[in-house]
Every structure is written in structure tokens, then in C-alpha cells.
């Protein structure tokens, strides 16, 4: 590696390494899962990075609301020391597009839903909520505006609300490819994301009995598994689809997920395996000394950690047995 | 006590009223019994559907809890707040012994509409929405039946009050009045007879 590149990343990788040590370790996670109630979970969290947030809230119910704020601060910290702050935007695109979906749907249906205060356009969106729908694309950064224009154009023809979500999903991944174009590692990661999302769409559509036309629209482009191959699979039953999918690089998780599905008819386990699969892939890159890999790993680990806390907390608040929580909780990074 | 002039005409009138009241009483009593029968069968149906709705809702909430554990409030809300599903609500009325009771039938589109993103939501959401759909159809039916129970109960109460009023108030009062008039008439007849006897004696003396 060139010395310039080494210098570019040396400091930030150092910072990431230091931050990584503060992620929740397996021991703490297990303690949280086995905790008696939500209060006990908070107690465990109070000794971690989440301590400040825990001190802020009166009850466990409130704590969940602070999780996005926690992530927001984490992203800000990373952006402050990282040489390519745009990289962080790649990971907050999903919040941007959540906000765009809520924004468009609010405008079109005259109803309100909550925005997530995260991402590059989080400051602009509340403002746009008040304005007219025609204003939206004028006040957004160009790449977002293009996505909104295209989706709205399609919506105006068909008046089908599904266009908004599916259309913006497709646009989001297009943007992600733009952001990720510089790094082989990110492109591979993105491709994996798309494959797993497509597999999820394929199986769920089958379960919901959706038409092939729907699938054609919903499936994402540019995955490792080509769209037309997936579409062809859709003609078969769920079983043949599973065995077809087992021929791909995701064989192990598909087989494992299918087994669980046969037992309890739920795809929760498969979805957990998907997240774990990506986490595992990122983990492999953890020991690359200089580059963006450690940072990507750290960001994904943070996101998974927040998901994990949410699952445990909601589980505890609603008295879901520890065994079941354990099944839903994603693997840790550390 | 019904005030009545003690005349033969009045007596005939009251006797006619008693006859009508008794016939009305019998009819209303039959109506009450008929309503009761219908009421009991509807109440049983109501209980059955209520139990079904409760167990379906229990399952739906259980599944929704799992959805909630894997997604944040914002994500769930954002996914489902603009639904496109269309459902048909048909209300027809059925006449049960003069009571118009509603029958509400709900039809939900056959193909499950998915207006939310399948990428950013978890599969448990599909499952819980499906369960809520099923529960909703029964809940709507339950609403119709519940209203029928309420209307029938009201009508039964009203009919029972009428039956009781006839049986315990109007008919006894009319019978009292009839007895009073006939006694009064008898009394007048006797006094008339006595007068006649006395007049006869005076004339003969």
C-alpha cells in the first residue's frame, strides 16, 4: 500500500480500534438476554457507552427512543475524524430514504408518520413536511431530488402507493452504488445486501401469493444473483425455490433458514442469519490494517448493536422468554 | 281504578276492552317468548365469535410484538401508514319479529396488498398484518351481532313491560271496573225492584 494511503487511514483506524473496545461484548449481551426485566437490562447498559443515555431516561420504555440519538452521535463522531466523511452517508442513506418515503406518503395521503432524525437530509425534511409537494425536489440535494422526481412521476401514472416504497428502495440502492463505486470491498458488500434483500423479497412474495408482475417491480437490480434467474425460480414452489437458492453462495444460511421455517413457519431466523452473514463478512475484514474496512465494520457493528438492544428491551418489556429473544438477537462484532 | 259511569253501555264497552287487552296480552307474550328464543341463539353466536376474535387478536398481537422487537416504531409506522388495501363493508338489515337488526359483512381484497417496502421491513410484519386482517373480518361481524343483541334486548325489555302492564295493571283494572259497574247495576236493579214493590203496595192499599 502506498504510504500516502497509509497515512490517510492510519489515524482514523487508530480511533476506530479504540472505539471498538467499547462495543458490547458477548458476555454483556448474554447477561442482558438473561436479565430478569427491562430495568435490569438498563442497569447493565448504564456501565457501557450507553450510560449517558440511560441516565437521561426515567423508564425503559423511554430508552428505546434515545437509540437513534445514540447512533446520530456516533455517526457525528466518526465523521469528525474520518478522511472520507461521505462514506458515513452511505450507511445513513437508509434513514434518508425512510424520511423520503414518510415525506412523500404524508403528502400524498394527508396523514403523518414519524421521521427519523438521522442522515444527510434529516434537517431539511421537517421543513419540507410543512411545504407543498412540488417544493420537495427543489430543496433537496440533486441526487435525492432525481429519485423523488422519478418515483413521483411513476406514482402519478399508477396511483399505487407501493410504487413509492419499492421505487425509492431501487433508487436508494442506485445511490448506494454511486457512493460505493470507489471500493471493491463496499461493492461486494452492497451486492451481498442486494442478494439477501432479493432472496427475502422472493420468499415473502411467494408466501403472500404476489404476482410475478409485482416481483418484477420489487426485485432489485445489480445483485450477484441475476434478476431473471430469480424471476424464473418464482414459478416453482417454495421448496424448489429453496433448493435452487441453495446452489448459490448463500447455501448454508438458506438451508439453515429453511429448516427453521419448516419447524415454526417463521422467517425470523433466516433474517437473523442474513444479518449475521453480512456481519461475518465484515468481520473478516476487521484485521485489514489500513483502509476503510475497519470503519465499515465498526459502523455495521454499531447498527447491529442498537438493533440488538431494541430486540432485548422490547422482549423484556413484553415478557418474551429469554430463549426466544436469543433466537432473534444478531451476533456481535467483538 | 278506572272511573266509569255505571251504565250498561259502559259495561259493554269495558267488556270489549278486556277482551282486546287479553288478546293483546297473549300476542305480546308470544312475541316476548319468540324474541327470547332468537336472543339466546344470537347471544350464543356472539359468545362464540367473541372468543374467536379474542384468540385471533391474541395471536396477532403476539406476532406484532416480534415485529416490534425487530423494527423501530418509526420504521413500522412509516411502512404501514399509507395503506392501499380496499375493503368492502356491506350492511343489510334483517327483520326479527319486528326488530330491524343489522348484518355487517366485510370483504377484504383477495390478493394481499403490500404497499410497504419488502427490503426495509421484516417478514414478521407480513405475518402479523395477515393475522390482524383475519381478526378484523370477525371483529366487524362481531360488531353487527353485538348491535343485534343490544336491539333485541331493548325490544324484549319493551315487550316485557307491555306484557306486565297488561297483565298486572290494565286487565285487573278493567275487570275491577266491570265488576263495579255490574254490581252497581245490580244494586240499581234491586233498588228499582224494591221501589216497584212499594209502589205496588201503596196502590193496592
List its traits.
heterodimer; A: 334 residues; mainly alpha; Topoisomerase I, Chain A, domain 4; 73% helix; globular; B: mainly alpha; Helix Hairpins; 3 helices; 10% strand
Task: Explain what the structure shows.
The complex is a heterodimer of chains A (334) and B (205). Chain A has helices at 3-20, 26-34, 38-45, 51-56, 60-81, 86-109, 125-130, 136-139, 142-158, 162-180, 184-208, 212-218, 227-233, 238-245, 251-264, 268-284, 293-317, 322-328. Chain A is mostly helical and 334 residues long. In chain A, α2 packs antiparallel against α3, α6 packs antiparallel against α10 (162-180) and α16 packs antiparallel against α17 (293-317). The longest helix of chain A has 25 residues, at 184-208. The radius of gyration of chain A is 21 Å and the shape is globular. Chain B has 205 residues and is mainly alpha-helical. Chain B has a single domain, classed as Orthogonal Bundle (Helix Hairpins), CATH 1.10.287.3240. A two-stranded antiparallel sheet of chain B has the order 1-2. In chain B, α1 runs antiparallel to α3. The longest helix of chain B has 82 residues, at 123-204. The relative contact order of chain B is 0.16. At the A-B interface, α5, α6, α10, α11 and α16 of A face α1, α2 and α3 of B.
